[in-house]
């Protein structure tokens, strides 16, 4: 990977990691479901008028929009609003790699290798350690919501794989149009119109800045650059850079929000990141068997002597 592309890969990981701190700040200004709806509204408009028509079937756009946009981000924002720390959220979400492998095995018949199975077990051990740490200092219900968000992310990864979009930016912008109305409806139903209106009336520059960041920087720029890198390099080269996300997430949360990072949390981070790294390894290619002709060479031809004449 050339230095410019390497820089872009690290930059995207940093953008996605810092995003959790920005979400934490945004939740001080908006109810979680309303904040998620505004995120996708700002990501879709006006970009949807410039990326061209959808390049995959609408069924995939709607499916990914509901699973990723409504379920994954709805659960994540509600979980963080309920007390899940930003840094720990950035770490726990990485368990999506395990859920992706499980869903792919069930839906696509992909059999994980022994190394991936080992990685899944190590990552799950990391989640268990993180749960123990969070149980001692925070609400386990919020922790469970973020784990559920990771499961939805894993399902959306498999749906995206089935959709196989040629242009990831075009796909992500159109996917962003789907969750807006369902999230707004859920916000009105669960959070109440009075709370939503109060948040919109009190909108200031900081609140607007968080919406711009999570919509344009994280979604449009982040996924656009990620798709660019995937078009120029193998997925096995690009994907490991996502392991830097919790590093930036935990560091930015500690720096800007003052979140403590306990020794138990560092242990959980090591297990989870190590397990996800093993899970993300590309399958080992088995060399094709040589053709039968090469394996069983033909017997050497025998020359027959001509029969001699009588007499």
Task: Describe what you observe in this structure.
Helices cover 72% and strands 0% of the residues. The protein contains 15 helices and no strands. Helix 1 (3-26) crosses helix 13, helix 5 (96-108) crosses helix 7 and helix 6 runs antiparallel to helix 14 (263-279). The longest helix has 28 residues, at 205-232.
Produce the secondary structure layout:
Elements lengths: L2 H24 L5 H13 L13 H24 L4 H7 L3 H13 L5 H24 L2 H24 L4 H10 L2 H12 L1 H9 L3 H28 L2 H4 L6 H12 L6 H17 L12 H4 L16
Helix pairs in contact: 1-4, 1-11, 1-13, 2-3, 2-8, 2-9, 2-11, 3-7, 3-8, 4-13, 5-7, 6-14, 8-11, 9-10
Helix content: over 70%
Could you tell me the number of beta strands? 0
Please describe the biggest sheet, giving its number of strands, its sense, and whether it closes into a barrel: none
What's the average pLDDT? 85
Beta-strand proportion? under 5%
Distance between the termini: 83 Å
Low-confidence spans: pLDDT under 50, at least 5 residues? none
Radius of gyration: 25 Å
Structural class: mainly alpha
Overall morphology: globular
Q: How many distinct helices?
A: 15
The run of helices and strands is: HHHHHHHHHHHHHHH
What key attributes describe this structure?
311 residues, mainly alpha, 72% helix, 0% strand, globular
Quick recap:
The protein is mainly α and 311 residues long. Helix content is 72%, strand content 0%. The longest helix is centred in the last third of the chain and has 28 residues.
């Amino acid at each position: 990977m050339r230095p410019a592309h390497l820089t872009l890969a690290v930059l995207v990981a940093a953008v996605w990691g810092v995003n959790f701190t920005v979400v934490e700040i945004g939740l001080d200004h908006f109810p979680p479901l309303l904040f998620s709806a505004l995120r996708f509204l700002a990501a879709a408009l006006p970009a949807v008028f410039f990326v061209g028509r959808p390049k995959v079937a609408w069924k995939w756009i709607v499916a990914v929009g509901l699973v990723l946009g409504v379920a994954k981000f709805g659960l994540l924002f509600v979980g963080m609003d309920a007390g899940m720390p930003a840094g720990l959220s950035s770490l726990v979400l990485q368990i999506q790699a395990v859920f992706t492998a499980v869903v792919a095995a069930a839906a696509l018949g992909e059999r994980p290798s022994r190394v991936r199975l080992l990685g899944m077990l190590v990552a799950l051990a990391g989640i268990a350690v993180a749960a123990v740490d969070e149980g001692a200092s925070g609400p386990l219900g919020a922790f469970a919501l973020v784990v559920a968000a990771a499961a939805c992310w894993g399902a959306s990864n498999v749906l995206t794989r089935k959709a196989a979009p040629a242009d990831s930016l075009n796909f992500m912008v159109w996917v962003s149009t789907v969750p807006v109305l369902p999230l707004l409806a859920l916000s009105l139903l669960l959070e109440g119109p009075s709370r939503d209106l109060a948040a919109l009336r009190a909108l200031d520059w900081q609140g607007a800045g968080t919406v711009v960041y999570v919509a344009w920087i994280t979604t449009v720029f982040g996924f656009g650059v990620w798709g660019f890198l995937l078009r120029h390099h193998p997925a096995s080269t690009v994907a490991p850079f996502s392991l830097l996300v919790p590093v930036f997430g935990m560091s930015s949360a500690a720096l800007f929000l003052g979140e403590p990072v306990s020794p138990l949390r560092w242990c959980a981070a090591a297990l989870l990141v190590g397990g996800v790294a093993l899970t993300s390894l590309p399958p080992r290619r088995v060399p094709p068997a040589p053709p039968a002709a090469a394996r069983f060479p033909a017997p050497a031809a025998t020359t027959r002597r001509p029969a001699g004449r009588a007499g």
